[in-house]
Amino acid sequence: MELFTGTGVALATPLNKGEILYEETEKLLCHTKCCDALVALGTTGEASTMTPKQKEQFVRFVRSKSELPLIVGVGGNNTEAVISDCKKAKEWGADGLLIVTPFYNKCTQEGAYLHYKAIASEAKLPIIVYNVPARTGFNLLPQTMAKIAELKGIAGIKEASGNMAQITECIRLCGCVYSGDDALTVPAMCMGAKGVISVAANVAPALMEEMTSLVNTDLSKAAALQIKLLPLINSLFCEVNPIPVRAALKFLGIDVGAPRLPMTEIMTEHKEQLYKAMEELKLI
């Protein structure tokens, strides 16, 4: 029931002064059309600072402009609210859901299992579970993920723990895993991951798509491309995502607007580092 293989782009959200920038969104969709899937309203999309109306407008517009599989982030720490948002995302045209583990109030491993069990029973769309401990303060263990993977409607996990041993164990126990770290895409796919949900694909979609495709045809070239992309990837995470990627898109002529508080504009030295990395890859 996997939703895609290869490169899913974690879309930035072009938004300024409370308004969706539709022309810039269309530019971004055109730029990333070589990817295998679109992921909207995730961390990179700054969904946590968007209003319900903005979320609906963005998802409906993306759906109207692209036929790629569309996965929509609807995670939260209130199980009933997440279930409600799942139903809304389906109405807006989502093909699947990206649901982060509960944050702030956190939970036990059993609580996480029951959270996803309740959501999966109501969602009516395939679910990718999202584990990102650096953001949530909670690490979903592979053994718990194995239980969750048995639930009807679970299509995989986006694993962003940064721990290759844990990622490998998730692959062993669960099957469909997507790398949540651009820098670990090839290592994870070598171990059996289906692809990546990628920040870098906003900026270098063709290179990310080429890299994930090469894993199955020429592993040495895939590894070489992963290494070649590392300076860009490192630059995209030199400050909190999505601060750098928003600056990178502006370098490409896609004005996604200013970061929304509490996010800030990228620091000058990091902006220069990012520009140099993009220049070296001949992206600009």
Instruction: Give me the strand/helix succession.
Output: EEEHEHEHEHEHHEHEHEHHHH
Question: What is the level 1 CATH name?
Answer: Alpha Beta
User: Which percent range fits the helix content?
Assistant: 40-55%
Measured distance between first and last alpha carbons: 38 Å
- Structure annotation, total helices: 12
Question: Which residues form runs of ≥5 with pLDDT under 50?
Answer: none
The strands making up the biggest β-sheet line up spatially as 1-4-5-6-7-8-9-10
Structural class: alpha/beta
Q: What form results from the Cα inertia axes? A: globular
The profile of the biggest β sheet is: 8 strands, parallel, barrel
The CATH fourth-level homologous superfamily: Aldolase class I
**CATH topology value:** TIM Barrel
CATH architecture: Alpha-Beta Barrel
User: How many domain units?
Assistant: 1
**How many strands in all?**
10
* Mean of residue pLDDT values: 97
Strand content: 5-15%
How large, in whole angstroms, is the Cα Rg? 18 Å
